[in-house]
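Task: fold both queries, return tokens.
Query 1:
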Amino acid sequence: MKRLSAVLLIVAMALWLAPTHAEAAKFPNKPVRLIIPYSPGGSHDAHARAFASVMEPYLGQPMLAVIRAGGGGSIGASFVARARADGHTLILGDQQSILVKPLLESLPYTSGSFVPVGRINYSPLLITVKKDAPWKNLRDLIEDAKRRPGKISFGGVPGLGVDQIPMELLSLKAGIKLKFVPFQGGGPTWKAFLGGHIDIAPAFASTVTPQLSKGAVRVLAITAPDRLPQLPDLPTMKEQGFDVQFAMFRTVFASRKTPADILAKLRAAFDKGVKDKSFQSMVKRMGERVIYMSGKNFESFMVQENANMKALVDKLVKKK
């Protein structure tokens, strides 16, 4: 009897999690939640809220940006993985929350638990210091770090977050040791940096640009292969002798179990949303660009990105 009850419970749960064809035809029939897996005030928060603000005409329902922060993005990702796969709960994910965290610890999801709706952009980091910092360029920083191993600090999300990865790669290439200070997102990291609690903030253009335009901070290098068209005066790491390249994708994901017709509706709405003039303008004001990718092309990109992250995790974990 107990076994029969357990089977019936499993069947009931499966039926609850799987939307019916009738529900798919009516999608969306309520607001769509876009989960932000990091703390307020960072680049994910800014992009998610900008995107959500323009999506109602294209979805036919409001999009609500909802923070579920913690665990290096895994709390938000777990929330979406456990939610009903009816297209009403999505996540604005990145390498750490979707690809890296399941490689480092046991979680209720894997990278295969999600399917991409579409990528908003692909952003390098800006290695940022205060305007009164003693380093004028990346080589100054490296030389100082060699003289004072473990004394120069930088902040980021622990568990090989997208802000931690390029600094660890730089340390590896340059043969230096920096002090890592963990935070729960780009917002708290940036606040601590501006407050003088850490020396370096690896951050994104959307976070850095307002302070950079005021002359309050200096960017020593960017982690792109080439200079950014919107910030052409900022040098790359590569041109300063340290070939470190890394960029974070900001991508909306749905549950892998989402029905194909619902996923198609989401992708069609996404395609219109990223082209929205108001959204494009908001992203441009952040100092970022929309670098859109969706559908099968992006699924192929994700396969390669997943392989890249596995190799990177192996490399950096071995370093430790």
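Query 1 returned. Query 2:
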Amino acid sequence: MIVNKEQTERLQNMLNQVLLNIGIGILLSLCFSVFYGTHVHAQQIITYLDRDSVRIGDTFQISYVVKGTYDRLFYPDETTFEGDPIVLKVERFRESSSTDSLVYTLQYFQNEDVIIPAQPITLRSGDSDTTIYTNRIPVFFKSSLQDSVSQFRPMKENYAFSSGILPYLFLLLIPLLGAILFWLKHKKRSSLQPEQRNYLGTEFEDPLILLRREIRELRTHKDIRSHDQADQFYVQLGDSIRRYIKRVYDFPALEMTSGEIVRGLVDHYASSSVIEKSRRVLMESDMVKFAKMTPDEESILSALHVADEFIDTVER
């Protein structure tokens, strides 16, 4: 009986110890879950888009509301976004000690639906960094034409030819191949003749002087009375800036869109002031061409003033 009683007490103590350990484990798990869950879910990003669809030349805004506990906030700037639409400006609004609003103003020059990719936003608290990503945002293209003629909208992708036209294409290729062979033969014959070189070099002209001359000529045509005149004025203004960029930075700015030119200036390590002035002049020119705006005299003078600021910036 004594042995049985001791065994019973020993088993009872072991059972009590096991139950105590289980209780402590459950309590620690609950504490860890509450702390960890609070820590993980303390950071939050809410995304807002101010419109459902856009047309060519439209500007729109994307807002990212960041909520959490952090000391510093790192977010994408104008040069982080790639491709179209392009970012015109980025604004930050501090709503409270734990809430920031990041407002991106963009301009759309595509002719199809696009998706704004997820963007990284880093929150620093002490020595710890937490990076969270925004949602991908679809931007839907809205044609200015009626649905019945939407297939004729500008810049539409070409459709494949039907197989019935292939024989005619082959017939056209035969004389084309003959012309190419004749040209290659003539080129080979010409290469055998001694080359006559003209050593009279062309006089170098300063790109800045050429730009000043072109802007001075534009000032004589600032009396704009129709959209066609405005379109011609802004085309000449934009081409003047493009020619200067082509001569100085040596890339084909005349064949590139405004967004591609801005990215080209970034790739060629142009100063931020030159990039900003170029973007302003080209964007204003695009607004008149694509958005069908007819600017008044004040807008024309403002555009010329921006061009003068561009000249002053590149002259420094």
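Both queries returned. Flag for query 2: Residues 44-141 form a domain with the Immunoglobulin-like fold (CATH 2.60.40.10).
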